[in-house]
Every structure is written in C-alpha cells, then in structure tokens.
Amino acid sequence: MGPDKQNHTIKIEKLQEKVYDYFMTILGIETSCDDTGVALIKDGQAVLNLVSSQIEIHRPYGGVYPMLAKREHEKNLPILLKEVKSFDAVAVTVGPGLEPCLWVGINKAVELAQENNVPLYTVNHLRAHIDIVRWQNPNIELPAIALIVSGGHTQIILVKSWDQLKIIGETRDDAAGECFDKTARILGLDYPGGPAIAAKAKLTTSMKYELPRPMIHQKNLDFSFSGLKTAVLYSFQDKSEDSVIAMAKEIQNSIAEVLAKKTKKAVEQEAANSIIMGGGVTANEKIRQEIRKIGLPVFTAPTELCTDNGLMVAVSAYLSPQKHEIKANGNLRI
Ligand code: KG4
Ligand code: ZN
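^ inputs. structure came back:
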C-alpha cells in the first residue's frame, strides 16, 4: 500500500462521518473478483445495474488470473461509469476478494467521493450477497441461516439480527465454486465450471460414479472441498461424453448434499426460521432443490443478482452502512 492510499483513508474517514443518515442516490462499485459492477439506487430503488463480465478473458486459464482481472477492471470501470451522471454517496467493496482488483474499485470510489464531496461507504462483499436478498425480501423472519457460496467463499452465517452476523461454518480449503471450476477443468469443460457442470448434469447416461461427501458426518459446520477435486482427478479416466455426464452429476450431487446437510445442521442448532442463499454457486438449481428440502422458507436472489454485481454493493450501503478501513482487505471477515 503506497502513502497516497493512506492519505485517502484519512480524508474519506472525515467525509464518512459527515453524512451517515441521509440517503438519496448511491453509486455502488464492485471489483472484488472478475466482474466489474456499477449500479445506482435512488431512495432504495434500483435505477441502473451494469456488469462487465471477464469470463471470456479468464476462460483459457480455467480460473481467475488476478493481475489480468485487475487490468480488465481498470479498463472497464471507467467505461461503465460513463453511464453515471450524479450521485449523493459512493459505496465500494473493500473485501474479501482479490486485493489488486479491490484496489481498482477503491481508488476510483475515493476519487469520485472526493471530487463530488460526497460520503464513501465501505462494503463487505459477503454481507452484500446477503443484503441483496434481504432488499428483495424485506420480511425475512430471523434468526436466519445464510449460506454464501461463491468462487472464493463457502460460509454459513448466522443472522441473529441484521446487524448481528456471525460466521458459524466455513470451508477449510477450496470454496465450492472453486471446486466446480477445478473439477470442470478436469472434465475438459470451460470456465466457469459451475454452470458447465450443471448443464452436463442435466443430460442422461447409464454410467455412474461415486464420489465422497467430504465432512458430511462431522458435527461441525465446516466444509472441505479439495479432496473432492482429488477424487475426481483419480477416478475420471474414461473421457467419453457419458463419463463426463456421469461425473458432472456426481460432482453436483456431492456438493449439493454436503451444503444442504451442513445448512440443515446449522438451522437445527440455531433454531432458525429461514434460510438465505447468496453467491454465484447458489444459482445452481440442484443446490436450491436440496436446500428447499430442509423445509424452511428459502430466500434467494434471481440468478443475475446471485453472481457479483454493483447493485448488491449499493444496496448493502443503503441497508447496513458499514465503516471499515478504506483499504483492500482480501480476508475481510463479516
Ligand atoms: O459470487 P460469484 O459471482 O463470484 C465470487 O465472488 O467468486 O461466484 C462465481 C462462482 C464460480 O465459481 C462459478 O463456477 C459459480 O459461481 N457458479 C455456479 C453456477 N453459476 C455460477 N456454480 C454452480 N452452478 C451454477 N449454476
Ligand atoms: Zn461474490
């Protein structure tokens, strides 16, 4: 972190104190991973939500290549921001995520807040995945269990009240999305692996594979998905289309069952009244089906709002204004 970034921190801290209690138009900026997002909400209603996806750029690498992602954010963010005319506050994701990418959004947000003399809100990316669901479903009954599953995270979060969030389970190694992406690569499928595996899993075959359900019987609420990837690597020898379909089904089943079992455990342990799902992986229909079997009301965002976007950032600042340090924090906790 350079000295100029330190200066930004000090100046904006003051701006932030100035206005915490009025909301008009909030500009949301998201650059934590491979989607560049810019959105505007006016008095709590969406008026703009632009996402520039880098999927094609990262496809040859089978996953997100951070320095390439940073360059793309630098290129695309100013293009998206051309659509933004005026705003009364800026909100930006400060973590968790890829730090070089986060800095692109943060530096731009600081610049815009200073130029326009408006407050800056810092947003936790995981909290934003929850807040977008809450924004669309204002009557979620608490306590709730939030299952946040993305390319970088797999977490079970207890939502006791909207300002009392606690991580009660998480992955010890790979995130579920990362597992989809890595196993898809083994199967010869394109990045992003989640949708590619889901599409193959819809097809029929008489072939069958059996993969482990990592940590499913352990009492804790944690996950581990790296062993699943290794199991796929060793058992996927026949590379026929039937074999790809059978393995895709089994990967999806394994991930869905483990996520659902641990979510059910969390629900029982915390006597939860509802389940919230967020993050790119929760777009998966099989996972949604398994979670619905738990029998509680399940709240999700539409697919395009499950994956990263600027709207969730603006909405998070609107619903739960936070005050983190204005610096990229790749491992920011909730
Ligand atoms: O939340 P997100 O857009 O970005 C991160 O914060 O990581 O999630 C991206 C992840 C990728 O790993 C992608 O493979 C996965 O979400 N994904 C899916 C589906 N759509 C996206 N995984 C399973 N099924 C899907 N339909
Ligand atoms: Zn995300």
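Residues 125, 129, 150, 279-280, 308 surround zinc ion (ligand 2) (CB under 6 Å). Confidence is low (pLDDT under 50) at residues 1-22.
thumbs up if we can close this ticket
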